[in-house]
């Protein structure tokens, strides 16, 4: 039976049987993993705190299929301190990763960026740029990156004064008869590509990432969006 030593963050956990948990984790070595954490809810279990999210910990996973079992768990750092809107934003990141990541496909770049995102959220920065940058990086790592500086049809530079249609899996083209929801000002596209954040470019980036992530997330609403005081 295969055995793995991994560093990971817990993304989601649900009670399983009487004292165990069914866990989805995000690990540096394996990517998204699912496993049974046995006895973590028993009164005598010293690992109970490790069923909380936003804590980096190591554990051994055992199993040949997609559902493994865990043992020998150890915290590697204190939980990232998150409160209020920062906590809801981090919960949103977790829920998105659970939804969109394929099982057991390692991505160390995304793991490191997720870890950095949690730290930035904990520092009480404005959460909106942090979320938009996380979503854009996630799209890039999933092979859905877009060129915000060039017209996908003509290869000409995006012009600030023009309006562009977003065409899924293709890019941005000079506006035609597309629905307004899928149209963007050239100035905003250039700002998104440079991650130069203004109220207008943040609003446009939010609209774009919702459109681009929608095929990966499916139709089921995200629970974390319902908790947030301001729509994510």
UniProtKB/TrEMBL annotation:
Protein name stated in the entry: DNA repair protein RecO
Role played: Involved in DNA repair and RecF pathway recombination.
Annotated keywords: DNA damage, DNA recombination, DNA repair
Organism, as annotated: Planctobacterium marinum
Signal peptide, first to last residue: none
Gene: recO
Record domain DNA replication/recombination mediator RecO N-terminal: where: 1-69
One cellular-component annotation, GO: bacterial nucleoid
InterPro entries for the chain: ARFGAP/RecO, DNA_rep/recomb_RecO_N, NA-bd_OB-fold, RecO, RecO_C
Origin: domain of life: Bacteria
Entry's Gene Ontology BP terms: DNA recombination; double-strand break repair
Record flagged with keyword Acetylation: no
Keyword Lipid biosynthesis applies: no
Family to which the UniProt record says this protein belongs: Belongs to the RecO family.
Pfam families, per database record: RecO_C (PF02565), RecO_N (PF11967)
């Amino acid at each position: 039976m295969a055995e793995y030593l991994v560093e990971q963050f817990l993304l989601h956990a649900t009670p399983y049987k009487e004292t165990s948990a069914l866990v989805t984790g995000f690990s540096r070595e394996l990517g998204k993993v699912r496993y049974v954490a046995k006895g973590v809810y028993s009164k005598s279990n010293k690992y109970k705190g490790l069923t909380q999210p936003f804590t980096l910990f190591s554990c051994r996973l055992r199993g040949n299929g997609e559902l493994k079992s865990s043992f020998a768990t150890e915290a590697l750092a204190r939980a990232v301190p998150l409160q209020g809107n920062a906590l809801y934003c981090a919960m949103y990141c977790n829920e998105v990763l659970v939804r969109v990541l394929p099982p057991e496909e390692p991505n160390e770049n995304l793991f490191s960026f997720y870890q950095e995102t949690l730290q930035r959220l904990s520092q009480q920065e404005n959460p909106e740029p942090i979320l938009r940058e996380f979503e854009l990086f996630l799209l890039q790592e999933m092979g859905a990156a877009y060129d915000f500086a060039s017209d996908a049809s003509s290869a000409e530079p995006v012009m600030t004064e023009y309006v562009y249609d977003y065409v899924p899996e293709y890019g941005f083209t000079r506006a035609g008869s597309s629905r307004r929801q899928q149209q963007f000002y050239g100035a905003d596209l250039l700002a998104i590509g440079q991650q130069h954040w203004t109220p207008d470019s943040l609003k446009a980036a939010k609209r774009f990432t919702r459109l681009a992530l929608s095929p990966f997330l499916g139709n089921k609403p995200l629970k974390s969006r319902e908790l947030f005081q301001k729509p994510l």
